[in-house]
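Lab manual, section 2.4: Encoding a predicted structure.

Procedure: take the sequence of the chain (383 residues), apply the prediction step described in section 2.3, and record the output as structure tokens. A sample record is shown.
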Amino acid sequence: MPANLPPQARAAERRYIEAKNLPDRIRYLQEFISSIPEHKGNEKMRGYLRRRLAQLKDELEGQRKRRAGGSGGGGFSFKKEGAAQVVILGMTGSGKSSLLMKVTNAKTEVADHPFTTREPVPGMMPFEDIQFQLIDTPAIFENVRDGAWGSQLLSLARNADGLLILLDAADSVNQFKLIVNELTSAGITIDRKVRKIEIERTTGGGIQIACTGRITCRVDEIDRTLKEFGVRNAVVRIWGDVTLEEVEDALDQTRIYKPSLIVVNKVDRFPGALENFHMACNKEAIEVSTATGEGLNSLGESLFRAMGIMRAYTKGAGGEVAEKPIIMKTGARVKDIAKIVHSQLYRNFKYARVWGNSVNFNGERVGAEHELADKDVLEIHMK
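Recorded output:
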């Protein structure tokens, strides 16, 4: 476990955390690293911070190159809308633009020649009472990150809520392996099983821990460890049993998990392609045809499940149920909803009444830790 830091290191850490722009973050992080005593107890922390410094420098250099290239420094960036922002990734000719046009109101170019899509195109896909923001992207290819806009494409994937990987049924196995390799090279994984711990930095709220297994240390030890590594605000998600040392090691991991839906297109021309993909890749996928419309009606439901989200609806005592749901990660609790609705509801929470699949009977009285199910309605009462 890292040793306690001297006052000058704490001050440098604070300046780094509070920095408002990228150059300042780099400058203050350099100060922070240089002020950390060089002894064995701090080796992991120093190593992690050096790698983080390298990432920030790469990011700054990318911004400078885009500005020099006349892109205005913006790159590929879209404001998130709907229940989730989902980036469509696929090789040229896989049918990304056709899929977007079939399931959204977006207008994009569809042609027989390769690399038709030059810029990302967003569209909104309705599913029941919510919408997904789908983004069609330029084709992915081997070593795409070395291309003119490859780093921007992969950055868009990193920042999205999830991915839709579209494969041509004629060569789905090889295309899938190539796309996974490109994502891995960009620090992205679509396989949650390879990560027992995920640390997502946030802008506030302190350290929040969600665990589905057993932690062989005290929660306050995890909190203290993260703060000693310079992490003041984060959501820590843990799957399975972990030790404090594994939490420290997780700070050195750069891969980020993205929920994904794998879609095999053109099955009207290649029957049996889905079964071949299952056997070769041992991955779940759905089959569609953008030419005939086969499978497109179930795309929304499949995407909803793949994104790992749920809907919750609020109501006042004796009032009407809100029309728009609150979108949360699967497994959200009553207190998570209270925190989003209003800070007073969260701080002065007394109990809630819930209607839906998570309770034994409609209107059941539950506490703050009660886990909700999709489409639950809750009525929160304060002290």
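Check your result against the sample. The first strand starts at residue 84 and ends at 89.
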